[in-house]
Design goal:
This protein has 2 domains: 150 residues, Aspartate Aminotransferase, domain 1 (Alpha-Beta Complex), CATH 3.90.1150.10; 256 residues, Type I PLP-dependent aspartate aminotransferase-like (Major domain) (Aspartate Aminotransferase, domain 2, 3-Layer(aba) Sandwich), CATH 3.40.640. 36% of the residues lie in helices and 13% in strands. Helix 8 links the parallel strand 6 and strand 7. It has a 7-stranded mixed beta sheet with strand order 2-8-7-6-5-3-4, sandwiched between helices. Strands 9-10-13-12 form a 4-stranded antiparallel beta sheet, with helices on one face. 46% of the residues are buried. The chain has 13 helices and 13 strands. The protein starts with 6 loop residues before the first helix and ends in a 15-residue tail after the last helix. By secondary structure, the protein is an alpha/beta fold. Bound molecules: pyridoxal-5'-phosphate. Pyridoxal-5'-phosphate binds next to helix 4 and helix 5.
């Protein structure tokens, strides 16, 4: 069935959208700017301006050091409990701390230490490079006794479960994967993969950076052991906002944190000379949290809890399908092809379109001189244009206009006016 190609239809979808009012809760200073990059840096919620302002002016400015007892000290656990609701974990299993990369290191170290006697780490070649770099560093730190084995994607879009099964065995210590792949948005079946890892006695470690706030996750139902995730993408926590980590309750005592700092001690303010393991999720904190940045995370988390991840997912799937059908009508004849799984149930919340000229096409999309709108997607090497769908603020009309603008750029070969040399951050 072909899609209705009129803008009236896009407008009708927007009018009938049950989440349409949430867009008003974000700072949108230029309504003509089409932002399809919430999967890299989520938009700023209006309330965050207020919360961060309060944290600076009232808590830091007026209350000074007293603020530690008035909320700062427990902020990381309190927000961890809220994030736990979004990822289907027990409230005492999640804490906000450090960056995703550092959390990956801490839990990865703990996992390898715990699984002494097993020598293989399994991941895939669609994983986020930082995750793989951290794992390579861990292999070196454990004196090269481990092997990092990567499941190879045949098409660069999805993974083959039978291949994964073949890689697991008695030597597998740890299986660590991004639940949703950052380029293609391929989404693993969390329950199935976790079960497979457990069947072979390995620990299962998920990176939820592209899932949290975008797709329903239940770490509890999957019985996952470890997880980390990012808060500046679909959780709209702001640039470089602290990440979170999850450790299943019955592992919290046993798992070692390689960076045991004072915030992970039983009671930091007793200032004992020897570290005492609290045996709870708190031990995976390290030092003082970046309070101002953590303060900005709460409004969007509250919004997501109010909307419910089910409603977010429903709209994300509908918008993804709409985008793909427009692309099929208008773009595929210009050399584009789908760089994401065709079926929504195996796909996260962004759509990748592949084109040999992807980089220059992105430059044209970004250029205010071209067409009626600036469209911000992002480019991922070598040939992906990622179009991020963030149901709290992405409209159907924006999707319509973006794909139409892409068609305009292709029909008039506008991308040919741009150089192929890359900016530092793409
Ligand atoms: C965004 C992202 C990260 C980010 O790591 P930082 O340490 O916050 O820079 C890590 N892993 C994955 C899978 C990501 O998508």
């Amino acid at each position: 069935m072909s899609v209705d190609l009129s803008i009236e239809y896009a407008r009708k979808l927007d009018r009938e959208d049950p989440l349409k009012d949430y867009r008003k809760q974000f700072v949108i200073s230029d309504p003509s700017l089409i932002y399809l990059d919430g999967n890299s840096l989520g938009r700023l919620p209006l309330k965050t301006v207020e919360y961060a302002g309060m944290a600076i002016r009232d808590q830091w400015g007026d209350r000074l050091i007293r603020s530690w007892n008035e909320g700062w000290y427990h902020q990381s656990s309190r927000l961890g409990r809220k994030i736990a609701q979004i990822i289907g974990a027990h409230p005492e299993e999640v804490i906000v701390s450090d960056s995703t990369s550092i959390n990956l290191y801490k839990l990865g170290y703990g996992a390898l230490k715990m699984m002494k006697g097993r020598s293989e780490i399994v991941s895939d070649d669609m994983n986020f490079p930082s995750d793989l770099y951290i794992l390579q560093g861990l292999v070196r730190q454990f004196n090269g006794k481990h092997t990092l084995r990567l499941l190879k994607s045949q098409d660069g879009i999805s993974s083959d479960m039978t291949e994964l099964v073949r890689m697991l065995g008695k030597r597998t210590a740890l299986v660590t994967l991004s639940h949703v792949a950052f380029k293609s948005a391929y989404m693993y079946d969390m329950e199935k993969v976790t079960e497979l890892a457990h069947m072979h006695g390995a620990l299962m470690f998920w990176d939820l950076s592209h899932s949290v706030g975008a797709v329903p996750v239940s770490l509890k139902r999957a019985d996952a052991d470890l997880a980390v995730g990012c808060t500046y993408k679909y959780l709209n926590g702001g640039p470089g906002a602290s990440a979170f980590l999850y450790v299943k309750r019955d592992l919290q005592e046993k798992l070692e944190n390689p960076i045991q700092g004072w915030f992970g001690d039983k009671n930091p303010f007793e200032f004992k000379l020897h570290y005492r393991d609290p045996g709870t999720i708190r031990k995976f904190q390290t030092g003082s949290p970046p309070v101002l940045s953590v303060s900005g995370m709460e409004p969007a988390i509250d919004m997501l809890l109010e909307v419910g991840i089910g409603a977010v997912r429903q709209k994300s799937v509908a918008q993804g399908e709409y985008l793909i059908s427009l692309a099929r009508e208008w773009l595929f004849k210009h050399g584009f092809r789908l760089g994401s799984p065709m079926f929504a149930e195996r796909r996260g919340s962004h759509i990748s379109l592949k084109h040999a000229e992807a980089y220059r096409i992105c430059r044209a999309l970004n250029d205010p001189q071209v067409g009626n709108h600036v469209v911000i997607p992002d480019f991922r090497e070598p040939n992906n244009i990622r179009l991020g769908i963030t149901p709290l603020y992405t409209t159907y009309t924006e999707i319509y206009r973006s794909i139409k603008q892409l068609r305009y750029i292709m029909e008039n070969r506008i991308y040919e006016h741009y150089p192929t040399s890359r900016d530092m951050v793409t």
